[in-house]
Amino acid sequence: ILSKRLAQVAAFVPKYARLADIGSDHAYLPIYLVANKSINYAVAGEIAQGPLKAASKQIKRYGYTNEIIPRLADGLMAIQPEDRIDTVVIAGMGGILTTTILTKGKEEGRLTKEQRLILQPNNHEQSVRHWLATQHYKIYEEQIVEEHGKFYEIIVAYYKTDCHYTKKEIYFGPVLIQQKNLAFKKKWQKELQTKQKVLSNLQNARTAQKSKIEEVQQQIAWIKEVLK
Ligand code: SAM
Predict the structure, then answer these.
(1) Centroid of ligand 1 to alpha carbon of 191 (angstroms)
(2) In this entry, which stretches build a coiled coil (predicted)?
(3) Residue 146's beta-bridge partner residues?
């Protein structure tokens, strides 16, 4: 059984996708998808020996050695042309690392315009959305889930020229801001309190930059507006 977070990632994987799960760790995601007859081909990429071993062990235990290929590789270097990967998952890593992996993957020719991206950064979601926007990806779906008091955003994107996002959409998520589910409201209520503390600290600090204060004031105004 998957965590709520990974179950939401799994829900965005299309049936019969050819999946690359980058940073697969125990390969729980591809194992779950194969067990549910949702997919029958996946590469489980890992940069570290320990997690790769854990993945191989689990794959063998479930008898999915024909369906799931564990590979030791940095980021999207796990993908080979003959895999015909159409769906790339990068879940459970920091947002900055996620964008670094995507940028390198593009440079190395492993990221193609046909692949669907399913990203679940543990932080810096805005940096991930900013990367997608500047690289001409359209965000088709998003979801936010709360698990053990933490909020996780899942972003689904495809390459598509001519789509533009406002700063506010990058900040909150273009789909999330439309849906405003309970987890979204809780996240931003919490964030509002944090920002208000940050602002008062900045205002009390003699060395604080005016532009920084204005930035936080702008964010507070946005958050209040979306929570209305
Ligand atoms: N994807 C799983 C999930 O969401 O539960 C596991 C997340 S685990 C916290 C992150 C994994 O990413 C670790 O096993 C780590 O070794 C791997 N990792 C970190 N950087 C990587 C990279 N550049 N390429 C491939 N895997 C990487």
Answers:
(1) 27
(2) 185-219
(3) 151
Q: Mean of the pLDDT values across residues 163-171?
A: 95
75 CB near ligand 1 (under 6 Å): yes
- Cα distance between residue 27 and residue 190, in whole Å: 32
Rounded to whole angstroms, the Cα distance separating 221 from 228 reads 11
Mean pLDDT of 152-160: 97
**Cross-strand bridge partners of residue 46:** 72
Band of pLDDT at residue 163, cut at 50, 70 and 90: confident
Q: How far is the CA of 128 from the centre of ligand 1 (A)?
A: 16
Of 86, 56, 50, nearest to 71 (Cα)? 56
Residue 211, classified by CB atoms within 10 Å of its CB into exposed (0-12), middle (13-18) or buried (19+), is exposed
Helix (H) or strand (E) holding 80: none
User: What ipTM was reported for this prediction?
Assistant: 0.99
- With vertex at residue 27, the alpha carbon angle to CA 21 and CA 32, rounded to the nearest 5 degrees, is 95
Ligand 1 pocket, residue 25 CB under 6 Å? yes
Instruction: State if residue 46 touches ligand 1 by the CB under 6 angstroms criterion.
Output: yes
Give the tens place of pLDDT for each residue, 53-64.
Answer: 999 999 999 999
Q: Is the CB of 71 under 6 A from ligand 1?
A: no
